[in-house]
Amino acid sequence: MTAKSFRFVSTDRRVREDRRFVVGKGRFAADIAAAGTRHVALVTCPHPAARILAIDKAAALAVPGVHYVLDGRELAAATQPLLAGLDTPKVPRRPLAVDVGRYAGEWVAAVVAETRALAEDAAELVRVDYQPLPFVLDGEAAYAPGSPIVHADHGSNVLLDRTFVWGEVEKDFAESPHRLSLCLKWGRSSTVPVETFAALASWDPWREVLDVYASVQMPRFPDQVALALKLPGSSVRVHNDVDVGGSYGVKRGIKHAVLVGYLSRRLGFPVRLVEDRLENMRAGDGHGPERNFDIEVAFDEMGLIRSMKMRALDNVGAYAGRSPFQLGKPIGAIVGPYRIQSVQYRAIAVTSNKTVQEAVRAFGQSPTNYAIERVIEEVARHRGLDRLEVRRRNLIRADEFPYLIPSGTTYDSGDYHAVVDKVVACADYAALVAERDRLRAQGLLAGIGIAACLEPSGANSTFEPLLNPKNETTTYTDSCRINVDLSGAVTATVHTLSAGQGHETLVGTVIGEVLEIDPDRIRVVRPDSLTSLPSQSPVGSRMAIMLGGAAFHAAQNLKARLLAIAAHDLKIAPERAAYGAGDVFERSAPQNRRTWTELVTIAHRNFHRLPPNTEPGLAFTHVMQVPTGGQLPTADCRVQMYPCFAFEFHLLLMAIDPDLGKPEIKRYIVGHDCGTVINPKIVRGMTMGGIAHGIGAALYEEFAYDAQGQLVAQSLMDYLLPSAHEVPPVEIIHHVTPSPHTVFGQKGSGESGYLGAPAAIASAVNDAVRPLGIVVNSLPIKMAQLGDMIAAARDKSNTVEAPK
Question: pLDDT (tens digit, 9 = 90+) per residue, 48-102?
């Protein structure tokens, strides 16, 4: 199917979810009211590491309206540890600390009271006796021998230390005339959604079902809650008809749901926990990667990179969680969009006495893209070549697809040079350089930022068995069910929560395209987890591919049934029947037809008119496996990680006030190829939001800690988010290279913008300050730090040796 044949796909239709949000009619977890609900407030550890000697609950329990104070020992005795991605049984993770607090802000006890305010007051009355312990904050320090051990039973702070070698790395280095190395740092930041995490649990002892309403975005959430609470999966009912007020990975919430789930069963009434901002930022388990890179490349006179060695050390915080897998996803795009023929990759994850790291937009790919792009820039500088030209020389060519990279993943399709050319033409690159030079002549520091990167999409799970051989998961499904009722109305199901990616619009558009009916006629609903089909939730830029694919195939099955019913009823051979806009007619005699209404009536009421062995009704289901998935990693650790790879090319102009160090983005252009675009408004929104997020990660946002192990960014006064003043208008240039693996040629776009924006910002800053001899190799590049570096460089250049 070509773009020209689409009725609804790629048309600029409204996003149906927007209607309820803009009028304040969203239904969020904190909006859910259950009769008799009590509320939770948390007692937290004030130390980065401390032994819990005693907890005195008496004063809190004496307050009228306080129902219970739960500590970690009681909860641990009744529950299983939360699941971890790696095989680390001696690093147990629980909702409440047991005997030892391992980071400042960790939950130690939970107070249940009639109101949230009362619970907070009572929490201040809980007295905990602590014995402070040695602690470690820095990732490299945590990795070094002799460091304080976060989990004594584990014996070290190392959760993962694997080295992968793909291709003849040492040979390629030996035969290359040039090499350079670089040390880089990606600072700890996150998505910081407007809505904090909220969870309401209500146990029904007569039906033995725990109802959970939560603002969650996580694969297998109901299963993990049930496992932790020692319940069968059929006893946990997660309600998917809840809107999520932003996430992009961080709304995991297992410990929140397990905590309130246990309390509801223990106390016999509904229990709700809604984080305040402080709780969310200190212990919401939503911090993103904090990663150090040591990277070395071998290249020739023309700047063509032959081989790369990369060491990535991630500081994952106090517990393992799923975060070490964020070192695994980049393996599927370890060379980015470039023709690098061999790679050595060492992935290290360490614990420290910081807040737990969890999945954040792009699942570790954006830091890796930043590292690759910084090296590309240094190769250009080393050879005295134009940065844009070096990228062009190294980019994979359109005629090389499908392209096998050293780690075993095959890129599906692309025309990277065409996207670059479109962006360069749109920007008028020569004029952009002239404008940079004009700004420099005015006394500003000005630079051009460039970044090219990939967006792996389709979210296969093979990084799990690659990093944990005990995990043999080889599927990451999603599903759709379509039902046509007797009135002819179409209802489709989505089996996960709404996290802002426009799933209802996606499913309606895809089904409308296949059935040739207006997507607005298709109702999309979200059944609870007990009546749901398999879904891995909206992670890894996967829903356009997986949910869209499932909806497509379910709709095709429905269409095939309608054709079969009509052919049988018209008494014609099936191949003579044609489908059009809901009706089925004879190709050679179009007047000989059955309308949509007639076909629906036959399916539901006229069993005698159905083809033999045909079930009555019109209900169809499709559970979709990841394209190109289904295989475990090979013995030499090669793996097909994701099926589809979108491409981005970022180009921007930045000016920096040399006295303040304040950056201003003057122009921002991004070229984006995510294959066939299903809904342009959604893709534009994702890309704009991703770029804003990337600007924040590059210039403003950081979960910083002081030397005493205290998080100093505990509110949005301290954790700086870019506003409309800092995010410029963005010119988006689209290019379409369809994927051969998807139903319309679509690729993912949910993480677009963020994957390249930090690298592009870093590129612009370095271009601006290089005339002063400054090189910046860590993110975020904060205004105060940048101002200090500029001042120091100017002082140094103005220093004249005194005459003797």
Answer: 999 999 999 999 999 999 999 999 999 999 999 999 889 999 999 999 999 999 9
Confidence of residue 4 (pLDDT cuts 50, 70, 90): low
Label residues 652-691 b or e (16+ Cβ within 10 Å = b): bbbbbbbeebebebbbbbbbbbbbbbbbeebbbbbbbbbb
Q: Is 571 helix (H, G, I), strand (E, B) or coil?
A: coil
pLDDT tens digits, one per residue of 663-692: 999 999 999 999 999 999 999 999 999 999
Is residue 639 a contact partner of residue 541, using CB atoms and an 8 Å limit? no
Q: How far apart are the first and last CA of the chain?
A: 81
Place of tokens 């006890």: 109
**Dmax of the chain from CA atoms?**
112
- DSSP code, position 627: T
Ranges assigned E (strand) in 533-605: 577-580, 583-586, 589-594
Comparing 177-181, 475-479, 759-763, the range with the smallest average pLDDT is 475-479
CA 735, CA 419: separation in Å to the nearest integer?
6
pLDDT at position 799 is 67
**Strand order across the beta sheet in which 38-44 lies:** 66-71, 107-113, 38-44, 271-274, 198-204, 209-214, 236-238
DSSP letter for 104, please. T
Give me the count of residues in the chain. Answer: 804
SS3 state at 437: helix
Beta strand pairing call for 66-71 and 342-350: unpaired
Task: From 448, 459, 471, select the one nearest 544 (Cα to Cα).
Answer: 459
80 DSSP assignment:
P
State the CB neighbour count (10 A cutoff) for residue 748: 28
- 252 — phi, psi (to 5°)? -85, -60
Phi, psi for 79 (deg, rounded to 5): -135, 165
**Secondary structure (DSSP) of 342-391:** EEEEEEEEE--SSPPB---TTTTHHHHHHHHHHHHHHHHHHHT--HHHHH
Here the tokens at position 612 are 């033999």
What global pTM score does this model have? 0.96
300, 276 Cβ separation under 8 angstroms? no
Please give the C-alpha separations between residue 540 and each of 218, 331, 456, 457, in angstroms, as whole numbers: 11, 14, 8, 6
DSSP letter string over 711-729? BS--STTTSPPP-TTTS--
Task: Give the integer Cα–Cα distance in Å for 775 and 770.
Answer: 6
Q: How much is the pLDDT for 358?
A: 87
Query: pLDDT digits over 779-801, tens only?
Result: 999 999 999 999 999 998 776 44
Q: Please, which residues have CB within 8 angstroms of residue 212's CB and are 6 or more apart in sequence?
A: 199, 200, 201, 222, 225, 236, 237, 238, 239, 257, 261
Q: 215-219, 587-591, 753-757: lowest mean pLDDT where? A: 215-219
